Amino acid sequence: MDPASTEKAQRKSDIFCDQDADVVFVSSDNVLFEINSIHLNLSTSIGLARDSNASDDGSDPILLPESFDVLEVIFQFIEPPPLSRNYLQPAIMDMEPTLFFRVAEAAEKYVVYSALGICFARMGILVTEYPLDVLNHSFLHGHVDLADRAARESLTQSLNDVAIKLTAPDLLRRFIIYYSKYRSMINTDNDDGTFCPRLAARYQAYQRTQRELLSKVNAETDECYCENRGSTIVEAVVGIRNCLPKFRDMHIK
Question: What integer pLDDT is reported at residue 213 of this predicted model?
Fold first, then answer.
């Protein structure tokens, strides 16, 4: 470990500060975590074993790329929770989403057994509100059923957000193919030789997830064809989405 990093690590975790611990980790923001290695062996599979170059007595801290707030959660799943925390692990289901996604990534990376199941369950709950984040995570870690769900939910997200959030290898290209297939099916379904600016505006509002605008582009008269057809736009688009091939079947040629 870089000596400069050790010098900067001025603070210890209030939870993980056992003087009998034989392994010391340092977060990316220079907070020390003192851990008993027996819990690492029992609770994780990879990634948190002591470096072969570290000193035998554990005095050489191991630098991890995760920040303090993430590691403090992760280590609570690794060491048995004490009476002072009512023997409870962190409340993943109530965790702020931005922190949760980083914790879930660390749980996968270090294969923290007791955290994986609850993180996966929370992903399923967040898939509608945070589809791109769930898609990126589930695709990266091979959760194909969840990735299929998240990909469908991501079809109405802005392309700017798509480009920023889909960082897993090959995911962005695969999603573009999937999105192109979706738009092709939409265009085919609505190509009936008619065109109405109000109907087009209504459809675009739905596509851009600006659903609050739908009422503002309704037809002006009872006789307008758009009034009858526009009321079924949401159902039609959802039906087309459900007819798409599964995201797992989108192949890059």
Answer: 47
Q: What pLDDT does residue 53 have?
A: 43
pTM here is 0.77
pLDDT on residue 253:
67
How far apart, in whole angstroms, are the C-alpha atoms of residue 225 and residue 210? 22
- Distance between first and last Cα of the chain: 43
pLDDT at 248 (0 to 100):
94
Q: What is the mean pLDDT of each run of 10 residues along the chain (253 residues)?
A: 53 87 93 89 66 53 95 93 80 97 97 95 98 98 98 92 97 95 73 52 58 47 50 63 87 72
Domain extents in the chain: 3-126, 144-249
Decide if 68 contacts 29 (C-beta within 8 A): yes
Of 73, 143, 84, nearest to 110 (Cα)?
73
**Class of the CATH-defined domain 3-126:** alpha beta
